Amino acid sequence: MRSVFRLLLVSVFVLISACASNQQEEVLPEETYYENARSAMSAGNFNEAETNLDYLETYYPFGRYAEQAQLDLIYARYQNLDLEGARAAADRFLRLNPQSESADYALYMRGLASYNMDISLAGRYFPIDVTERDPGEQRRAFRDFSELLNRYPDSQYAADARQRMIAIRNRLAELELHAARYYIKREAFVAANNRARYVVENFPNTPATEEALIIMAETYQFLNLDKGAQDAIQLLAINYPDSDAFNDNMKFESNMLKREDRSLTSVITFGLLGDD
User: Fold this and answer.
1) Which helix (H) or strand (E) holds 122?
2) Higher model confidence: residue 12 or residue 164?
3) Which among 23, 102, 165, 171 is least buried, having the fewest CB atoms inside 10 angstroms?
4) DSSP label at 252?
5) Which residues pair with 246 in a beta bridge?
6) What is the pLDDT of residues 1-46, one digit of tens each?
């Protein structure tokens, strides 16, 4: 009898819990979710906005507010710093509405999410050099912005996308320079030359190009490849005649390649004393 009573008690408890859960998940009218979401966004409460938009998509996936709700969800997630979620929402919108008049906006926001994805919350408050981070998301953003410009050259977002593409190219070029400097410190001059040459060939007219040409010239000189060195110096003189790598007589005098002192005395004294 006690077992039966306990079973009955558990069943009643589960039934009551289910009823309470159903009451909490009462489905509201489509317009109510939409208005709640818009009001929340206007107030800057993007958590609340996202919740209502999620409900709207769940209960009314083909309703009259469906397309606008999908667009609003992209924006709400972006403002909530849920950049992965914003990109996923943009992907979904483009998949479901490929011919939409707002496809350019979805493409732009998808690129914008990737553009900012490598800048974490810590990067917003601490001096983290984004050019040293993995450029994967930058490349994705570049592709999205490029697609936007190709498909919608007259879009209101085209000008900003174009400027961000320039910034991305500058970041990618600077990333290659970071690698070249790293190889120079380890006296891997062939690898440093390759990185610098990649900048000149793939990212010309970026702020990194001048230093890349200097690294090319010096590494070629160090490797006794005179033709390559002279070509790099000539390009540097033509494009950057005021470079600090030239003296007053326009003679190339840069000295970036400095061998580290690896003598026993230097190692023991941490480089504070020489071998004199």
Assistant:
1) helix 121-125
2) 164
3) 23
4) B
5) 252
6) 555 445 445 454 445 444 444 444 689 999 999 999 999 999 999 9
Using alpha carbons only, give the angle 88, 92, 97 rounded to the nearest 5 degrees. 150
Helices (H), 118-225: 121-125, 136-151, 158-185, 189-202, 209-222
User: 252 forms bridges with which residues in the sheet?
Assistant: 246
Cα 207 to chain center, whole Å?
A: 19
The residues near 186 (Cβ < 8 Å, ≥ 6 apart) are: none
Could you please state the CATH topology (level 3) that the domain comprising 173-276 is classified under: 1.25.40
Q: Are 66 and 57 in contact (CB under 8 A)?
A: yes
- What are the sequence ranges of the domains in the chain? 173-276
How many whole angstroms separate alpha carbon 218 and alpha carbon 220?
5
Query: What gap in Å lies between CA 148 and CA 142, rounded to an integer?
Result: 10
pTM equals 0.76
Residues in the chain: 276
Tokens 């033509």 found at? 238
Both tokens of 110, joined, read: 């998808």
